[in-house]
């Protein structure tokens, strides 16, 4: 994994959070009822959304866009534009990597265990993993909220170099943790907020210890099956179920010694994603499962009211600060972390970006609006250093303004 790839992941948060401190935000007080919102879901609205998508494709140099929007479970639009590969049109049925969307599933699984009385968010990690470094200092809840201080393996220079050298490598949890677990914490637990994939790598081990079952098995039985996510599949290999939405990236440009002005992308579809988070939560999905997830996770379908409120909590708004050496920053209305979910205005979401894919699932609980977007990129989307932005997030914010103008997602300056 190149430095640019790690920065693309880490700076997904950094850009959001940095914008949060000075972003303009919309009026988030909604006056529309779900029935009123549903009544607005007409063909003209669908056409407006797709006109926007086509315009954004050109402006943002996107190879493909898959989008689905629903209101109160009723489909407003479900379309794909562009190509998966040259001459192969993208379709809404295609599978793609879901990245951090799986974090919301891990968080849901954790909170079902809290509801069952099998774990408390206040438990020290050492209760379950006594041999893990710093486990006596960090609570389970701090892992889940990303306030633990554990360094992020994804931005560790030695890990970056190793993964960049072989993007097809199959990583084990122990191999990944070895890069960061013996290092000092980035900050005292609970004193700052920092996006670190390491948190959810460790949470996977905690959940396996509590349940006595492999993460993939317990995730399937307790989250994916109950929610009917039939096309969300965990795999530690690079396999993706057919039909596949292919991705292309310039992230390794510098690592490969390619000049900034030389045309360059490489197919990144089958780079192995095992480097990211816990085994069993490294997954592929579809736009229909994103829509279902946005609704189910966004309403806390599997959770008690107390756990759901913790998941979508905005208590961290105003907390946190920029700190050298970590993807740390202040939480705000534009971007704030609950437990495994981001809140932005009145919306709850997850918005992964990696390996040439960007996507998003988002839900507006008060108006029951779900928006799901997946995109891939043309060469023009990448900067001279190979970096790129999450265009799925940008498209969501514009669609959100169409669907719920009185509760539009906050916009970046």
Q: What would you note in describing this structure?
A:
- With 413 residues, the protein is an alpha+beta fold.
- Helix content is 33%, strand content 15%.
- It contains 12 helices and 14 strands.
- The strands form 3 sheets. Strands 1, 2, 3, 9, 10, 11, 12, 13 and 14 form a 9-stranded antiparallel β-sheet that branches. A 3-stranded antiparallel β-sheet has the order 4-8-5.
- β1 and β2 form a beta hairpin.
- Residues 1-40 have low confidence and may be disordered.
Count of beta strands: 14
Radius of gyration: 20 Å
| Helix-strand string | HHHEEEEHHHHHHEEEEHHEEEEEEH
Query: What class would the helix/strand composition place it in?
Result: alpha+beta
- Major β-sheet profile: 9 strands, antiparallel
Strand content: 15-25%
Helix content: 25-40%
Q: Give start-end ranges of low-pLDDT stretches.
A: 1-40
State the distance separating the first and last CA atoms. Answer: 30 Å
Principal-axis shape: globular
- Average pLDDT works out at 91
Q: So how many helices?
A: 12
